[in-house]
Amino acid sequence: MRDFFKKVRLLLLLVLLILLTLSSMLVGKSPHRSGNENFVQRLLFDIASPVQSVIRIPIRFILKTWEDYVHLIDLKSENEVLKERLLVQEKEILEYQEALVSSGHLQRLAEMRADFQIPLLPAKIVGQDVSPWFRSILLERGGDRLVRGGMPVVADTGLVGIITATSPTTSRAMLILDSQSSLSGIVQRSRARGLVRGTGTRLLDFVLMVRGDDVQQGDVVLTSGIDGIYPQGLKIGEISRVNYADDRLVQVAELDPAVDFGRMEQVFIMEKRGLTMDLLFEDSNGPEIDKRSKKKVR
Amino acid sequence: MANGHSVTVILLGFLALIVRSTFVSEFPTLLIPDVSFLLVIIAAGYLKPVVGILVACLLGYITDLLSESPAGYHAFLRLIVFYLTVTFYNQFQLDRLFVFVPFVFVISFFDSIGAWILVNLIGTKTVLTLYGVGGMMLLAIVNAISAPVIKGLYDFLASFLGKGNRTKAVDFSSESR
Question: How far is residue B118's CA from residue A290's CA, in Å, rounded to a whole number?
Answer without folding.
Answer: 39
